[in-house]
Amino acid sequence: MNNKRINRISEEVKKALSYIISNDLKDPRISPMTSVTHVDVTGDLRYAKVYISVLGNEREKDNTIKGLESAKGFIRNEIGDKVDLRYIPEPIFQLDESIERGIYMSKLIDKVNKKDKRGSTDE
Asked: Which of 5, 18, 41, 61 is deepest in the core (most CB within 10 A)?
């Protein structure tokens, strides 16, 4: 299938999922600070790998993934209502920790820069 079409469908599914998670789901396990960072739809449109970012501790992340897994049927049905496709992809939720890694790396770089500035003024 055309790669451009798959990318467009992935973006449409991402938009729909973002809306569904923030507005339609009422599960208390799902953190309010949950965002969809990326969606990869397979070429046959049967599955969508959904990368979820959750701001919070490990327990909140685990609970959010469990809540999303238990609402998978509802989510798939809502995607079908919002995106016009012959086959509605089954979401597969994965935790995306790239944002946390990026923040950690940024802090490390800032720390090294501060040490470097202090070291250069001493000489």
From this structure: 41
